[in-house]
Write a structure and sequence with these properties.
2 copies of one chain form a homodimer.
Chain A lengths: L19 H8 L3 H8 L7 H14 L5 H8 L4 E6 L5 H16 L3 E6 L4 H9 L8 E4 L3 H7 L8 E4 L9 E5 L1 H14 L5 E6 L6 H16 L9 E4 L4 H13 L6 E4 L2 H13 L9 E5 L13 E5 L1 H18 L19 E4 L1 E4 L22
Parallel strand pairs in A: 1-2, 1-3, 3-4, 4-5, 5-11, 6-7, 6-8, 8-9, 9-10
Antiparallel strand pairs in A: 10-12
Helix pairs in contact in A: 1-2, 1-3, 5-12, 8-9, 10-11
Chain B binds a DNA duplex (30 and 30 nucleotides) through helix 2 and helix 4.
Chain lengths: 377, 377
DNA sequence: AGCCCGGCCTACAACGTTGTACGAGCGCCT
DNA sequence: AGGCGCTCGTACAACGTTGTAGGCCGGGCT
């Protein structure tokens, strides 16, 4: 054994990485035996195993992912497609998806659709085949509609709300119930004129429609169906749009003492605009956000928000996706192929929770809630 | 031509996708000719090209990414490794990286290191070879130190601040200057006791050290070197830690009329704690954040913040990475190999800008700045 | 002694693509 | 008419891995 043979795995980039054939030559066995050692196949004698392992360590051999993928027909990579990874909600979702994927030994490729139909179609059509094993897609409404007709060339699970096609797997929360729950919370706090801030009805952001419906239903149930002026519409889920919509509403002399917002970012913009108009959010106007992103707990006043169980969404979405991938693998024959292929159009509804904070304090408190010491839940 | 041959590319998942050999058979040419058509090689007769293209369209052929990658020795995928993609700063960074990568026809694999040394080492050591062409890494300090010694098996560019090894490419902002600039801004607004809120000195988050130094230097230059009590230390960059550190400082009767924070999230927690203690952020205590993430413009008061040019970081980081990838490709010989390989230890410093908002208003204004109408920049 | 069987290892052939080298056909020039 | 060069297309061999089928060898059985 030479000294050179003992140098650590880290080698200059001029030395090409070791392959199976290199290890095989050094250990004096066939490449298949090395492969068997690497993959912990039992059919290798203990002595041989030790010798091969030594060669592997000496050469710093690492399996080459691409060769392996080509042979196995799997990449171990799934794609996560969201409109914009910089949006806090999608970033937090991605965090959970990446973590859940890592637990399963999968890698996550992030795609940004910019809520563009064309981009989403391209992803679903899987222009380059085989790059990813499956796709986790947060679709805009129109694409979701299409998906029923279009056959996906790659396993697919949808994330989010809206009118979804019946034959594609999907995981999300029950947003209508959540919106109704948030609305009832505001009513029970003595709020009487509750506005809804979100995407325009029938717009590209279907999420808003479902939440808006839950809000309208809850108000109708309470005997106070909302007037048209209580719908505050935005074109995108940004602080600027939230503030602008509230500014418009204040200008048009619409009256409200609470706002249910379709996202925390919108809520933040709304609270800012209220303050700018001399109204104290949480006292004069209650505000409820959606998503419960990290900053919601630390605004002033802190933001009441609907918190979807993102971990469960990631977990169930990934589980379904992996099941579909396994089932669609043409190489592996289904062991018990009796069951009629459960992989079409499953719906998983995960939990949500209304996290109550200062921004939705009961009407007319003794002191402005955002100044009450110890007010943090 | 049968009817079936005209059916669109979207096929059932039971039909295996078309390969080059299928197209070749249908067009009556060799697979290499099909390959030449797909890759737009000029050596194909126009007539043949048309015939092959027809066969491609009829079969809905898409190149198989893995086979291609194996042959070419490239995957077209780069990894972006950040401590936590859910943190707004890293999410926004990722957004720019993904966008810049898409422009270059590259895909981005997101890895979360959880600021763990072990995870970062694993990524740099490239356990599986060949999966990604290169790595964009936002390291914790200790790993960065190691990188000089450890030979990376994959092209590598570092993002961020701190004591970085001299022989690895790096892109970031001049945080010391930015901190000094922010400090001078506070001084010029009449602030006298300026605290710094960030990671503990010498801690794992090297970013804090550089910013802290710039702050301390600026104060020293102004003849007011900061006392030890002006260092507010956190263990992680969360709203909770920011609030707790400020609470501690208020309790210990440290005096300050301004806080320079190492991140916007910390600043948000700090502002909340100030408000809870009855102090109005932006009036009684000025607050400056860092990163200028999306929510900074919409808090109340809106947050003055140091905005690094994330787009430039993504752009330059990716450019360097692609250059290194190209240079380290063993198959392609350097055309003019005269220059001595520029791919080691380059430093790129991108611009930053102090975005002044309400939270750093001048001391003792006539009215609380957060109530001034039209106060939004 | 001959046979079978199980343990251990190897040869071969894919997975789908593309660079290299060469060959067939054709027109043009001498 | 024969040789030359050009255009277009093909055969082959990789890239690195792993499933399948089969081979060799020793021990236990008849």
């Amino acid at each position: 054994m030479t000294l050179a043979s003992l140098e650590p795995a880290g080698h200059s980039h001029l030395v090409p990485p070791a392959r199976l054939v290199d290890v095989a030559a050094r250990a004096g066995v066939s490449i298949k035996t090395v492969s068997n050692v690497v993959n912990a196949h039992p059919q290798v004698h203990q002595l041989t195993r030790t010798r091969v392992q030594a060669a592997i360590d000496e050469l710093g051999y690492r399996p080459h992912a691409i060769g392996r993928q080509l042979r196995r027909g799997r990449t171990g990579i799934i794609a996560l497609a969201v409109p914009d990874i910089a949006v806090p909600y999608f970033a937090e979702l991605a965090g959970h998806v990446v973590a859940a994927a890592a637990q399963r030994g999968l890698e996550v490729l992030v795609e940004q659709t910019n809520a563009s139909l064309e981009t989403e179609r391209r992803l679903v059509d899987a222009r380059d085949t085989g790059l990813v094993d499956g796709l986790l897609l947060s679709p805009v409404a129109t694409t979701a509609d299409e998906l029923g007709a279009r056959a996906a060339t790659t396993p697919l699970v949808l994330i989010g709300e809206g009118p979804l096609p019946p034959d594609v797997d999907h995981v999300g929360t029950d947003d209508a119930s959540a919106a109704a729950e948030a609305t009832r919370h505001l009513l029970s706090g003595g709020r009487r004129e509750i506005a809804f801030l979100g995407g325009a009805p029938g717009g590209p952001v279907a999420t808003s429609d479902v939440r808006r419906q839950g809000w309208a239903d809850a108000l109708a149930d309470a005997g106070r169906p909302p007037p048209a002026s209580a719908h505050l519409a935005v074109t995108s889920f940004t602080g600027a749009c939230g503030a602008a919509a509230v500014a418009d509403a204040l200008m048009s002399s619409a009256t409200f003492d609470a706002i249910l917002c379709a996202s925390d970012v919108l809520a933040l913009g709304a609270m800012r605009e209220l303050a700018r108009a001399g109204l104290v959010p949480g006292r004069d106007v209650a505000v409820v956000g959606w998503d419960d992103v990290a900053f919601a707990a630390w605004t002033t006043p802190s933001l009441t928000s609907v918190r979807p169980d993102l971990e469960a969404i990631a977990e169930h979405g990934l589980t379904m996706l992996v099941e579909t991938i396994d089932a669609s693998d043409p190489r592996k024959k289904p062991p018990g192929d009796g069951q009629p292929c459960p992989r079409a159009g499953r719906r998983v509804v995960v939990a949500h929770r209304l996290v109550v904070r200062e921004s939705s304090a009961a009407a007319h408190p003794a002191r402005p809630p955002h100044l009450i010491p110890g007010g943090i839940p």
